[in-house]
């Protein structure tokens, strides 16, 4: 029976064989690794991954697709976990696997940013991640400072990961075609993150980029003083007439580390609002 894509789940199924092969090739699964596919859908990418891996795990929210996937592959080859990736416990899966995870997926665009932020809380359990996202989102994630695309999401991801755009994917590679271009990226957690606490960095960025076209002297600098941080401290290198997108990730990290500790329930634990620039 044909599965009708469901708008509420943001379903756009990747069907282009060359793109599927390219993603599987970028992941390059090896014996003994624990591959976890987020949102396998109809199983097109799953099939390519299973050609190289004896077994993978999958997290799928659509119960009809869960049933279809379980009929197609035995549990010893594909372990399907029914649930929402925004609530799934990847630490539990890593513990059950006895080692770290490699994440891969064509992520629904309507949850991509909050999911990326939530996954920060599981970074110690992750080797790498290969994700298909809206091209505009990946533009923001990999953007360098001083560009229009550089903002909150890019700082958050770059502070904790090494990020790399791999290739772009046109709308016609999907069924139904989305109205936007897509890209595939690779993220590898940094052995030593640039910042100690994700929640502190996110709180800082929320203030700084709330009025991103304004100079720091009228927005961020007064707020830092209310937090007991001296913005004129030379280690921060802040220029009062600069704008948020001109500040490199390293300086944002230093500022976040200077803030007073935040309460429990941080962005890294999955309790924050989605990041948007």
Would you give an account of this structure?
With about 280 residues, the protein is α/β, with parallel strands linked by helices. It has 10 helices and 9 strands. It has helices at about 15-25, 45-50, 65-70, 90-95, 110-120, 135-140, 150-160, 200-210, 220-225, 250-260, and strands spanning about 15, 35-40, 55-60, 80, 100-105, 125-135, 160-170, 175, 180-190. The strands form 2 sheets. The protein has a 7-stranded mixed beta sheet, with helices on both faces. A two-stranded antiparallel ribbon has the order 1-8. The longest helix has 11 residues, at about 15-25. Residues about 265-275 have low confidence and may be disordered.
In short:
Helix content is 32%, strand content 18%. The protein contains 10 helices and 9 strands.
List the helices and strands and how they pair.
Layout: E1 13-14, H1 17-27, E2 34-38, H2 44-50, E3 56-60, H3 63-72, E4 78-82, H4 90-97, E5 101-106, H5 112-119, E6 126-134, H6 135-142, H7 152-160, E7 161-169, E8 174-175, E9 182-189, H8 198-208, H9 220-226, H10 249-258
Parallel strand pairs: 2-3, 2-5, 3-4, 5-6
Antiparallel strand pairs: 1-8, 6-9, 7-9
Helix pairs in contact: 1-2, 7-10, 8-10
């Amino acid at each position: 029976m044909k599965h009708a894509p469901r708008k509420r789940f943001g379903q756009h199924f990747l069907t282009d064989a060359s793109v599927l092969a390219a993603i599987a090739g970028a992941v390059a699964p090896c014996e003994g690794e624990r591959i976890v596919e987020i949102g396998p859908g109809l199983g097109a990418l799953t099939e390519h991954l299973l050609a190289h891996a004896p077994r993978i795990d999958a997290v799928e929210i659509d119960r009809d697709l869960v049933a279809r996937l379980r009929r197609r592959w035995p549990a010893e080859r594909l372990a399907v976990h029914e649930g929402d990736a925004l609530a799934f416990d990847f630490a539990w899966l890593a513990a059950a696997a006895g080692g770290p995870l490699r994440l891969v997926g064509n992520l629904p665009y309507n949850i991509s940013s909050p999911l990326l932020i939530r996954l920060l809380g599981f970074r110690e359990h992750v080797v790498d991640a290969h994700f298909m996202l809206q091209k505009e989102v990946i533009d923001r994630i990999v953007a360098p400072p001083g560009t229009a695309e550089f903002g909150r999401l890019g700082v958050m991801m770059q502070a904790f990961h090494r990020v790399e755009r791999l290739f772009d994917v046109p709308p016609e590679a999907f069924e139904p075609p989305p109205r936007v271009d897509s890209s595939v990226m690779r993220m590898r957690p940094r052995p030593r993150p640039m910042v100690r606490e994700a929640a502190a960095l996110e709180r800082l960025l929320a203030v700084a980029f709330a009025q991103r076209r304004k100079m720091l002297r009228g927005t961020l600098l007064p707020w830092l003083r209310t937090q007991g941080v001296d913005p004129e401290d030379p280690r921060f290198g802040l220029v009062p007439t600069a704008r948020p997108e001109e500040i490199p990730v390293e300086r944002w990290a230093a500022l976040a580390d200077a803030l007073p500790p935040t309460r429990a329930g941080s962005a890294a634990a999955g309790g924050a609002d989605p990041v948007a620039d």
